């Protein structure tokens, strides 16, 4: 019988939720009812539970704070979020806390049943896992080194250069990995990713294993393990090997090769995709991004790592945009997303789906803002430049996204603003540079790049044209 805690300040709704749960006749039991996050926190500090059901909008210690606490103290605990608000910030916080589901009030019996069954499946899977020592070993491999984990690994690998660390990814959840388990001296699923697992396999077993595994299993194989204390570097080997995969790669195994240096993959569509995100064109964004991914991967032979870098750069720019637009910190944490993408997604479909869903949700939320929707095309252009002055913007690009001839746009811009397009853009950049010179101690060369100038000498020339001073003179005077 699994124990859960429920937190909701509305007692009638809380009791109603419990009544719905009782009627489902599931192997779960309410251990505690909390009227707010503070009561829930106090209980959890002294009493273990298997999962949590929480509201978001609560007094004293609300759902956002409570989820942050759960994420810090119980990162593996399943969470179901129930809220009366279809709030993008709440939804992002729930995703960040690894919530199993986000249910809107009023919800049906089927809604809560599905979520609870998902939680029970996760808890059953956790109970079925091997001993705590194996979990500690996996934690040590992925970077959370403990003395117990290191001792277990050193005992397991007594002879250097005789074992490989292997990260396997099973693309079909129905495929059995029993053969992998039988060939390994250690084999455990990666937490939260049942179809991804680490194994330690003797050199003599590798070739036979590779020839026997189903075709839908991918293997990232490290260099030979020479030192168990450096297990983290062999973990990186496996990740690098799988990320090097290209669409034309026929074998399902990838040995780490330190001599391979990937050239930077050129992707000229970031600004275009960000425009669709900012203007809330969810379907257009998804269609374009899917097409660009397919072209890159299946035509240009980009690696999975190239696709991940493209998607991550879009997520990073979207975070910067949201923070600037709303003048607040967005709720998703880029380093955690970065780690999950690089270390957990190893098929084209998984990567494509992840970024399409993530960025599509942001675009959907932006559709209510009606950005760049003025009837006056120049107002839209100016609004765009005010946000993106630091990007490499050209008239041709602006004419494409606003569906206007570039020559006509240049003429119209001068007519409406009294300034040439390039002068207006330089004015925005120099104003931003002046602010940075006054409020930071960053070098002029750094500021030059931050406001959109790759050529430092050109920045100096434009700055002096606008201010009759060099950046250093301006800073000293101000």
UniProtKB/TrEMBL annotation:
One GO MF term, please? DNA-binding transcription factor activity
Fetch the PROSITE patterns from UniProt.
HTH_ARAC_FAMILY_2, RESPONSE_REGULATORY
Coiled-coil features, chain-numbered ranges: none
User: What InterPro entries does its record include?
Assistant: CheY-like_superfamily (IPR011006), Homeodomain-like_sf (IPR009057), HTH_AraC (IPR018060), Sig_transdc_resp-reg_receiver (IPR001789)
Which UniProt keywords are listed? Answer: DNA-binding, Phosphoprotein, Transcription, Transcription regulation
Domain HTH araC/xylS-type positions: 379-477
| Entry keyword Phosphoprotein | yes
Record PTM 4-aspartylphosphate, positions in chain: 55
Gene3D superfamilies of this UniProt entry? Answer: 3.40.50.2300, Homeodomain-like (1.10.10.60)
Highest taxon above the source species: Bacteria
Tell me one GO biological process term: phosphorelay signal transduction system
User: Which PANTHER family does the record cross-reference, listed alphabetically?
Assistant: ARAC-FAMILY TRANSCRIPTIONAL REGULATOR, HTH-TYPE TRANSCRIPTIONAL ACTIVATOR RHAS
> What name goes with this protein?
Two-component system response regulator YesN
Q: Which organism is it from?
A: Trichococcus patagoniensis
């Amino acid at each position: 019988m699994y124990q859960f805690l429920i937190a909701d300040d509305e007692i009638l709704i809380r009791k109603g939720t419990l009544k719905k749960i009782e009627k489902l006749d599931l192997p779960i039991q309410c251990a505690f009812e909390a009227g707010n996050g503070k009561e829930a926190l106090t209980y959890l500090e002294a009493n273990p539970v298997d999962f949590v059901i929480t509201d978001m909008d609560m007094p004293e210690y609300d759902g956002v704070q409570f989820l942050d606490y759960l994420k810090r103290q119980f990162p593996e605990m399943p969470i179901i979020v129930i809220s009366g608000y279809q709030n993008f910030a709440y939804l992002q916080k729930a995703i960040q806390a690894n919530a199993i589901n986000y249910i809107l009030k009023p919800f049906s019996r089927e809604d809560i049943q599905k979520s609870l069954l998902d939680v029970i499946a996760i808890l059953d899977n956790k109970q079925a896992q091997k001993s705590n020592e194996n979990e500690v070993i996996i934690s040590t491999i992925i970077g959370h080194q403990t003395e117990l984990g290191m001792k277990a690994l050193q005992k397991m690998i007594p002879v250097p250069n005789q074992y490989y660390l292997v990260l396997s990814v099973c693309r079909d959840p129905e495929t059995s990995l029993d053969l992998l388990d039988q060939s390994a001296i250690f084999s455990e699923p990666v937490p939260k990713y049942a179809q991804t697992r680490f194994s330690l396999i003797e050199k003599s077993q590798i070739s036979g294993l590779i020839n026997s595994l189903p075709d839908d299993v991918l293997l990232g194989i490290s260099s030979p393990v020479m030192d168990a204390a450096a297990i983290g570097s062999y973990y990186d080997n496996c990740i690098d090997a799988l990320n090097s995969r290209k669409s034309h790669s026929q074998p399902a195994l990838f040995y780490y090769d330190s001599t391979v240096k990937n050239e930077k993959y050129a992707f000229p569509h970031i600004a275009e995709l960000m425009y669709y995100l900012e203007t809330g064109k969810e379907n257009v964004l998804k269609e374009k991004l899917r097409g660009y991914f397919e072209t890159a991967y299946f035509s240009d032979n980009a690696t999975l790592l190239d696709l991940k870098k493209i998607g991550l750069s879009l997520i990073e720019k979207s975070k910067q945009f949201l923070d600037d637009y709303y003048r607040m910190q967005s709720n998703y944490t880029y380093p955690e997303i970065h780690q999950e993408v690089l270390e957990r997604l190893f098929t084209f479909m998984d990567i494509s789906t992840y970024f399409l869903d993530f960025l599509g949700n942001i675009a959907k939320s932006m559709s209510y803002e009606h950005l760049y929707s003025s009837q006056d095309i120049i107002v839209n252009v100016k609004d765009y430049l005010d946000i993106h002055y630091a990007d490499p913007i050209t008239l041709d690009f602006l004419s494409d996204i606003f569906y206007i001839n570039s020559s006509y746009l240049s003429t119209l811009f001068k007519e409406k603003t009294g300034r040439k397009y390039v002068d207006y853009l330089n004015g925005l950049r120099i104003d931003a540079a002046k602010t940075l010179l006054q409020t930071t101690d960053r070098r002029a060369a750094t500021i030059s790049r931050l406001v959109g100038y790759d050529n430092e000498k050109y920045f100096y020339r434009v700055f002096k044209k606008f201010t009759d001073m060099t950046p250093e003179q301006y800073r000293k005077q101000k």
